[in-house]
């Protein structure tokens, strides 16, 4: 049986040192910590990770971003221009399984920590270097914030409305990059178990956005037609979108097949449309999107949200609420499934979601949000003790 | 050295059977195939994966989505209501390392393949069951298309403009779920190397969106203030957005710190603003977003895009182009870094991006897009041969 309690979390015994800031590396290492890895977050002593100071939403001390991304980690405040602190970092790397950096391009090299040298010195080390645009092109050294890479990667051109572009509210360039850091580290750990060797991994945010744009890239490459953003809709499917209801709410309805469309015509009391050739296939409905939306919208405007969702469920039509963030906080599906836990901060426990994907048998770690440099002294002492041990044993 | 050529891809020897459709499971298994896994995509004989038929953009045969998500896989067309075909599937599972399903809720159970029974029968098997909303709440059986889960998860409420909500053009609920399937399978493979045991993994799309909403959840939980979507901007940072240029283009500019703002005031010839207390901190600029955007917009309207980007680079200000999908197809940073490759289809080779994250030493597989059921006969023969071998050896 695989679903009994495991003796340990899958990444117990794995140590990750992360020179990290903002979102991409921190989300990746938070997930590594969720699975039991020890994560040492190296921060500048003068302020640390800039997301600590985006706001003071959480207990007047931490930002909303920082609490989201950093529970379960240790914070080592090191001034890497100070030779003593750099020695501490080098000592940490020598004892680590994984080194991650999303510092500015070239920052590791300027510290004398080029990824090739690190790999040469530590055969089992897994090194991950995150950049905005990678190396070898005209944009190598360009600043790469989430908005900038979403925009450079074409993602904003398919979001919002025609003439009123938008970025995805979820910072998809950042979180997508985090997911590739996280997954590729896991692949490298697996590979290391089988080969005994570490890995050098370079990840560029632009490549991540480009991967997620694959459907749109193929459309343009093969048809020459740019997708037009349609707000809550999809340029490739109709009807699929948001409709005002009789009680001043918004219903979200979607069909992804012709049979679902025929069921929808029953639901909205327009069985005549099911037989109408002009709407029989998705591609035809996309061409007549305005007409189709008007028919669906007309029916929704005469029914309450509760009526619409119940009818859609009964007829097998995709439907959802148009939720605010507060609705998500209070979402009954998250509450019923016990998705919330508490994590610690220096000023008290705060709610946090459980990680979205773990095996049943894996224990989940719920560690605390570290104050800046909270673990620096302990880490210095640990390295000093290790050095002494090493001298005593003569190794 | 870790960066010499590896003897093999990290997932060589790993077999994945996937009962998959649409985006979430297919993107996950495509990435597993990128790393060398053998992926057997099980499809219905009557049409297969519905994304095959979204359009005929690629050579009149395949859809843009399908080519994006399915190269490097084998297709087995099996009618799982036919006992003989179900026996084939059971034989495949018995020889597999990983079984993934994103069929409708309850579909596996109805086939007699409940995940607990599978785990009990195959101690080393990693089983992943993807659903929209998980089990145990009011939404268990609800249809879950990307738009629906984005909306239910509050993501649309922070995208677009106030009063004109939008979904992210990138299907973030689907691709985010894919990334958790992919990463959790890798974690389970690593865990299996150390424990000898497989894993049972359940992933809900709503939990994925909720994870990515972490910053917004914390803001609402701790301050009670809903974020307002601001198009190309960010509700938490200013200035950060898109500005029309003198030559009819759009410049995207972003600042993420007060020092970057002060550099921006130099760039736009408004050094007076650097000394103005009313704009000195990000939180103050967010309150005066309209004023700040007007000042930046005024300067951008008097300069060409090329002038603006050059000035921003020279002054250390985050900047980007507002690119279309076609711009991304032709992006010089992708071309210069050799990010494109060719993959096969039954009607000829087509361009595809290399995977965004691999170690330098790993070979990348570039397999073909399978026709529906292209590998069914070979897989039947392989299982039949294995059964014969098993009889001969008496095991």
Give a short account of the largest sheet of chain A: 6 strands, parallel
The CATH class of the largest domain in chain A, by name, is: Alpha Beta
Q: Tell me which protein chains meet in the greatest interface and how many residues each side has.
A: A-B, 158 and 158 residues
How many individual β-strands of chain A? Answer: 13
Proportion of beta-strand residues of chain A: 5-15%
Number of domains of chain A: 2
What is the count of helical runs of chain A?
17
Which strand order does the major sheet of chain A show?
3-2-1-4-5-8
Kindly report the CATH topology of the largest domain in chain A.
Answer: Rossmann fold
Protein name (chains A, B): CoA transferase
GO molecular function, one term (chains A, B): transferase activity
Pfam family, one (chains A, B): CoA_transf_3
InterPro entries (chains A, B): CoA-transferase_III_domain (IPR050483), CoA-Trfase_fam_III (IPR003673), CoA-Trfase_III_dom3_sf (IPR044855), CoA-Trfase_III_dom_1_sf (IPR023606)
């Amino acid at each position: 049986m695989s679903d009994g309690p495991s003796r340990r979390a899958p990444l117990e015994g794995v140590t990750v040192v992360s020179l990290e800031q903002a979102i991409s590396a921190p989300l990746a290492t938070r997930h590594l910590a969720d699975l039991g890895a020890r994560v040492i977050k190296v921060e500048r002593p003068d302020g640390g990770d800039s997301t600590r100071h985006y706001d003071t939403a959480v207990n007047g001390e931490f930002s909303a971003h920082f609490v989201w991304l950093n529970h379960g980690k240790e914070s080592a405040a090191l001034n890497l221009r100070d030779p003593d602190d750099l020695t501490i970092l080098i000592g940490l790397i020598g004892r680590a399984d994984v080194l991650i950096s999303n510092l500015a391009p070239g920052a590791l090299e300027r510290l004398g920590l080029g990824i090739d040298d690190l790999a040469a010195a530590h055969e089992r080390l897994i090194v991950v270097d995150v950049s905005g645009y990678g190396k070898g092109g005209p944009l190598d050294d360009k600043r790469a914030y989430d908005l900038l890479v979403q925009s450079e990667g074409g993602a904003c051109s398919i979001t919002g409305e025609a003439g009123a572009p938008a970025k995805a509210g979820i910072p998809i360039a950042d979180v997508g990059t985090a997911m590739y850091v996280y997954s590729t580290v896991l692949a490298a750990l697996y590979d290391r178990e089988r080969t005994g060797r570490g890995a050098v991994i370079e990840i560029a945010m632009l490549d991540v956005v480009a991967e997620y744009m694959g459907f749109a890239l193929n459309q343009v490459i093969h048809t020459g037609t740019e997708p037009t953003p349609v707000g809550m809709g999809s340029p490739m499917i109709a009807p699929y979108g948001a409709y005002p209801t009789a009680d001043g709410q918004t219903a979200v309805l979607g069909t992804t097949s012709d049979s679902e469309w025929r069921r929808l015509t029953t639901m909205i009391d327009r069985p005549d449309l099911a037989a109408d050739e002009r709407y029989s296939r998705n591609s035809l409905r996309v061409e007549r999107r305005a007409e189709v939306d008007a028919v669906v919208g007309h029916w929704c405007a005469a029914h309450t949200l509760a009526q619409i969702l119940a009818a859609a469920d009964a007829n097998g039509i995709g439907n959802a609420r148009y939720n605010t963030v507060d609705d998500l906080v209070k979402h009954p599906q998250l509450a019923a499934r016990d998705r919330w836990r508490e994590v610690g901060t220096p000023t008290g426990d705060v709610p946090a979601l459980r990680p979205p994907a773990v095996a049943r048998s894996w224990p989940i770690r719920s560690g605390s949000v570290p104050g800046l440099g909270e673990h620096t002294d302990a880490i210095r002492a640990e390295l000093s003790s290790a050095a002494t041990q090493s001298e005593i044993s003569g190794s």
